[in-house]
Amino acid sequence: MGTATNERKLAVVFLWSISVLSGTCNAEFTPADNYLINCGSTVDASVGRRVFEADNSKSTILTSHQSVAANTFLDSVPASDYAVLYQTARIFGVPSSYSFKMKSRGRHFVRLHFFSFKYQSYDLAVAKFKVSTQDAVLLDNFTPPSNSSPVVREYSLNITRGMLILTFVPLGNSTSFINAIEVISVPDDLILDLGQSVNPIRQYAGLAAQPFQTFYRINVGGRKVTADNDTLWRSWDTDQSFFLNSTTTQTVTYEGKLNYQRGAATEEDAPDSVYNTARRLVAQNNTASASNMTWQFNVDRRASYLIRFHLCDIVSKAMAALYFDVYVDRWSAAEDLDLSEKGFGTLAVPYYTDVILESSDPSGKLSVSIGPSSLNNVAQDGILNGLEIMKMNISTGTVEIVQPPPSQKRELPIILGSILAVCAATAVAILCFVLRRKKNKKPQTASTSRTSSAWTPLTLNGISFLSTGTRTTSRTTLTSGTNGDATYQIPFVVLQEATNHFDEQMIIGVGGFGKVYKAVLQDGTKVAVKRGNHKSHQGIKEFRTEIELLSGLRHRHLVSLIGYCNEHNEMILVYEYMEKGTLKGHLYGSDIPALSWKKRVEICIGAARGLHYLHTGFAKSIIHRDVKSANILLDENLMAKVSDFGLSKTGPELDQTHVSTAVKGSFGYLDPEYYRRQKLTDKSDVYSFGVVLLEVICARPVIDPSLPREMINLAEWASKWQKRGELDQIVDQRIAGTIRPESLRKYGETVEKCLAEYGVDRPTMGDVLWNLEFVLQLQESGPDITNIDSMNQISELPSEARRVGSLEISTADESHTNINYSQMSTNDAFSQLMNTEGR
Ligand SMILES: *[C@@H]1O[C@H](CO)[C@@H](O)[C@H](O)[C@H]1NC(C)=O
Ligand SMILES: *[C@@H]1O[C@H](CO)[C@@H](O)[C@H](O)[C@H]1NC(C)=O
Ligand SMILES: *[C@@H]1O[C@H](CO)[C@@H](O)[C@H](O)[C@H]1NC(C)=O
Ligand SMILES: *[C@@H]1O[C@H](CO)[C@@H](O)[C@H](O)[C@H]1NC(C)=O
Ligand SMILES: *[C@@H]1O[C@H](CO)[C@@H](O)[C@H](O)[C@H]1NC(C)=O
Ligand SMILES: *[C@@H]1O[C@H](CO)[C@@H](O)[C@H](O)[C@H]1NC(C)=O
Ligand SMILES: *[C@@H]1O[C@H](CO)[C@@H](O)[C@H](O)[C@H]1NC(C)=O
After folding, report:
1. Where is the signal peptide (predicted)?
2. How far apart are CA 369 and CA 412, in angstroms?
3. How does 527-545 read in b/e, with b if 16+ C-beta sit within 10 Å?
4. At what angle do helices 682-698 and 765-780 cross, to 10 degrees?
């Protein structure tokens, strides 16, 4: 029957090539690469039959120096299959990337899901950014639509490398974000190399290498098809909103079985539900009245499009009964098309063909029409089952790449071994010294002397990030257990360059661990580089602790660890740079203008939030152990972040109430219960934080040996004033008049509770946080007396602190402060020793 049609001399098939397809109708397609990422989430999410992994999983590498995991309430997300994905997003403040290791080369779908919502100070609806791969710009100047509905952008990319890096670049002051990502292999023959161009008429070669962006995918005359019902997780819209209702049509549905044929379309090209529904021209008795059925789409002007027509003759009762014309814009793409002529010898054969159009309509419209054939003696008929419109040449502009950390071989165990030997020897020396001074004690200096002799694998929340065993074990991806930001190994040369060869001019701080340099990475990111001093007693253990802890912690009020370097015996930690330095620096000993009371309380609230997160954010609480004003850093907006986790310890197991450990910490801030009984609980941090609160209100050092004896220790001295209800007498004179009495009273009570003799009597960090918020509220609910500038003019009287000369005290790290031991008790000296030696 098929050959019979050949005898018909009428058919002038013009520009209609029979694509030779290697169709198979075998088992369901299984993609080699199938990455489904639920960004900004800590949990996997099921969407239909698929599971989207949290982006802290091991399967992808997230490289970001500044990212926030954001979430919103499910009921603020429009109901859809994907709603659960749109509940969370990852927000980036700097260029950042996701890297996917590709198992297969060739065509892949890359789908990016965006849903904008408000999170804290971020309004995602105003985000403006660029997304690129190593080879193509996928989105430029992109701002999600403001109608608060999700958008999915789909790309079809021929991936020729072993790694796909998707880079998100915020533009201007803006941020970038992403809710979910899909990267899925598709059959190689989904897009073939050749197509027919209609304007001008020519054969177009080179489709195979091109990237495409899907603009429209329509199940003509049928229902919406969701990802779960599609063979390649595509979604197909109905044609309702595109069909120009200018002529009489009917929708048809085929109940029979489709006849997939080798050489025609496959089940992967479009699902059955596309081929077994169609829109059909209703035959007119009067030839003159026949007209085209037309669909119209908005597209970008002056771009090229690959238009794929999905066709399947599900209406004819016999072969060679259906003839029609196909148009794209006003160009003819096929004349007198006869589907049965394709030689398959049967009806209901799924078939597609590609047409390429260089769009020229200045209004940015693209239309597709099916019209009746002008042949005599044939019915006025026509059919269309499905349509895909894919933009070509999507890549304009330059791509940006944030490379993932290179994987490197490590020879760590040996290097660390030697460092550890030094540490152990020093530890023994300290131990002897301590034992001599404190005979009645059996200090558990285990934490310094029990240095493990090998670099054992570290596991944080189930993700091991440093591996060993053999010298050549390559580094596994270092990802966090909470919000999934990668912390990675940074080559020494990079840091050398960034710090101008560790230029002394770049030093922003010195601590027991070593020097801290300001550095600028090649991409302009400012970072703080903390370079371990090899002789330091804050040795390998603290180095490890800090990497281990910080890389797992991502919180708005905790300083993020960006990377580390352990090449050439180095112990270097790289942190986000905190523009405004330490809280301490803003309180006393510098020319920095005094912070207002409101600002001070806000900073304390921020720090309290960070500590509260440490204490409660994990199954095992994390005790900071060195809370002090020098460890509370301020970013450019004076937002507080807690830093320096070198001494951190995870809290007690459930069946214990405290961690026994050698006393460490900073003198003046130490919980008396802790150094008396070596009993470490999260309440030790609460005590130290109480001392910080005093520093904040009195603006003087916690230990000031130049003062009269009873005034040396801030905690002791100020507590006496507070107990007498006279805290107002010792408030920083620069702000004293601006504090509302109720606010001050509440603050004083909070401090007093924090400094309670026994841990059990102290509030939790959560209570402290709540109380500070109340302090702020009490301050703000009254008349505005926070204008510090005017207050500064009034209070020219020298403050008590000034009279006693505390401003002359150096603000160097405590370990460098010259302290007069003769004025101290044995306990004090012990803690001081631990402070200078331990840090
Ligand atoms: C960045 O933000 C500041 C203040 O919000 C504004 O003045 C400036 O114009 C912004 N710059 C850009 C490039 O958007
Ligand atoms: C991808 O592009 C390369 C050329 O860059 C080509 O050789 C290969 O066939 C393409 N693969 C597919 C699946 O189109
Ligand atoms: C999609 O699949 C579901 C069940 O898997 C079915 O109930 C539904 O009718 C399908 N929709 C289409 C358009 O095929
Ligand atoms: C086309 O128009 C007719 C009559 O105005 C209406 O009944 C029909 O629903 C329309 N069809 C579409 C697809 O809009
Ligand atoms: C077309 O003509 C046939 C008979 O010639 C008639 O039965 C039919 O109703 C007509 N159809 C329309 C749509 O006018
Ligand atoms: C269908 O559209 C094409 C292109 O716009 C036009 O040339 C043709 O005359 C139309 N056919 C009918 C029957 O209106
Ligand atoms: C699209 O890109 C191809 C090569 O990738 C190029 O030959 C062609 O001219 C481009 N077309 C347009 C309209 O830019």
Report:
1. 1-27
2. 67
3. bbbbbbeeebbbbbbbbbb
4. 30
Q: Is the CB of 277 under 6 A from ligand 3?
A: no
Domain termination residue (choose one: 126, 154, 186): 186
Report strand pairing: 324-328 vs 463-466.
Answer: unpaired
Return the structure tokens found at 190.
């989904």
**DSSP class of residue 713?**
B
Residue 420 in domain: no
Whole-structure pTM value: 0.54
pLDDT tens, residue by residue, 66-84: 888 888 887 788 888 888 8
Whether residue 819 is contained in a domain is answered as no
pLDDT in tens, 288-327: 556 889 999 999 888 899 999 999 999 988 888 888 999 9
Q: Give the total residue count for the chain.
A: 839
Calculate how far, in angstroms, residue 480's C-alpha sits from the geometric centre of ligand 1: 32
- Using alpha carbons, select from 164, 68, 182 the residue that is nearest to residue 124: 68
Query: Terminus-to-terminus CA distance in the chain, angstroms?
Result: 91
Which structural domain, as residue segments, surrounds residue 597? Answer: 583-808
CATH number for the domain including 589? 1.10.510.10
- CB contact set of 472 (below 8 Å; sequence gap of 6+): 409
198 shares a domain with 174: no
Q: How many domains does the chain have?
A: 4
Among candidate residues 186, 214, 247, the one where a domain is terminated: 186
Determine the Cα–Cα distance for residues 730 and 726; give it in Å rounded to an integer.
8
Query: Measuring CA to CA, how many Å separate 327 from each of 332, 370, 471?
Result: 4, 6, 66
CA of 371 to the centre of ligand 6 (A): 7
Helix (H, G, I), strand (E, B) or coil at 317: coil
Note whether 473 and 546 are same-domain residues: yes
Concatenated DSSP letters of 360-390: --TT-EEEEEEEE---TTS-S--EE-EEEEE
Residue 210 alpha carbon, nearest atom of ligand 7: 5
633 and 491 share one domain: no
Protein residue whose Cα sits closest to atom 2 of ligand 4: 245
Catalytic residue check, 591? no
Name the residue of 244, 245, 249, 281 whose CB sits within 8 Å of the most ligand 4 atoms, as the mutation to test its pocket.
245
Share of the chain above pLDDT 70, in %: 73
Do 564 and 601 fall into the same domain?
Answer: no
**Which residues, other chains included, contact 244 with Cβ-Cβ below 8 Å and sequence gap of 6+?**
293, 294, 295, 296, 367
Q: Which two tokens stand for residue 16?
A: 């209609």
In a domain, 439, yes or no: no
- Could you tell me whether strands 50-54 and 34-38 are parallel, antiparallel, or unpaired per DSSP bridges? parallel
CA distance 635 to 630: 14
Q: By three-state DSSP, how is residue 674 classified? A: helix
pLDDT tens sequence across 100-129 = 999 999 999 999 999 999 888 888 999 999
Residue 418 vs residue 135, higher pLDDT: 135
